[in-house]
Structure formats: structure tokens, C-alpha cells
Amino acid sequence: MKFFEALNSRVIALILKKSDAFEVLSIDCGDKGAGIKTSTGDMIFVQWSDLVEAIGIRRFAYATDNISLLLVFQSAGTFEILPSCNGWLDLCSRVEHQHKGMPLQHWYPKILDKNAPVAIEAFNRNHIKK
């Protein structure tokens, strides 16, 4: 099983390398924003007010599917946060409570369903009722 886990990690790393998303090691959430540590060792600070969209995605891999949360910021770029990333649960809670996004317990089980789409919108700034 370790072989397949390593293979999945390698596949995800290659996908991220070909996309515009940063590979994230940890996210430290605060009230006004977050510090995001990337695999290159960079620390990027983002403001919650800059968050445009959060999308739960499922990537098909050899042994298991990989679930992650894709964060799209207006000026800071796109970040893919995996459940194994430090700060994952705090991030999901903040998307729900601070941004009136879909709760983790709603989008996560839906995306695990093999018949479901591979992406589910957890938050979109344009869909917030003011």
C-alpha cells in the first residue's frame, strides 16, 4: 500500500506542477487572513477579503482518490489544500463560518460519491446574499 500512496503523491505533484496551483504544506488561519507555506518553502500571506472561491475537488489516482480544497484568491493565486495539510480543519471551518460557505460535512461526502461531479463549489463570493 505504501507504494501506491507514494505513487499517488507523485501523480498529484506532477498535476500541480502543470497547473497554476501552489502545493501547500501548511496553512495557519487567522481572523483577517492566513499564512500559507508552500512546498518551495515560501510563506505567502493572503487576506480572507481576497478569497474569491473555494472548490472541493476529487482527483482520481491509482490506489485512492485524493480530495482537496482549491482556494482561489483574487491577487495571490490558487492554492490546493489537502486534508493531510496542517490547518485543514481550521481552514474548512473558516470557509464555512467566516464566508458563509458550504460546511465540510456537506460537500466532502458528496464529492466522495463516485457518481458525483469531481468538483463541488464550497464558497463563491458572487453567491453571497448581502
Question: What is the count of structural domains?
Answer: 1
Roughly how much helix do the residues carry, as a percent range?
Answer: 25-40%
What is the first-to-last residue Cα distance? 48 Å
Gyration radius, rounded: 14 Å
- Structural class designation: alpha+beta
DSSP strand content: 35-45%
Tally of helical segments: 3
Order of helical and strand elements: HEEEEEEHHE
Q: Mean pLDDT, as a whole number?
A: 80
Number of strands: 7
Largest sheet: 7 strands, mixed
Which sequence of strands runs across the widest sheet? 3-2-1-6-5-4-7
Task: Report the principal-axis shape.
Answer: globular
**Quaternary class:** single chain
| Low-pLDDT runs | none
